[in-house]
Design goal:
86 residues; Killing_trait_RebB
Amino acid sequence: MATVNQQITDAVTQSNVKVVAESPAMALSNVYQTAAHSTGIMFENAVNTQNQQNIVTQAATTQGVTQIYSLDTVADAVSIAKILNP
């Protein structure tokens, strides 16, 4: 009653060996998948940051051009104010 068929013990042993043998490959595949995901998020963040920087640059350029175009208007206003209020 205490003896077990040799084929059963071989099958259990081979199953355990298979699981142990696959563990490093599974662990490494998880590492690679995590690294790929992190790299993807890094590139998404880089593109988003670049987009935001372009928006800020465009806004600064627009403000600068607006100030350049308004210089004559301010100068004219100051001149007229001096003429009207001597």
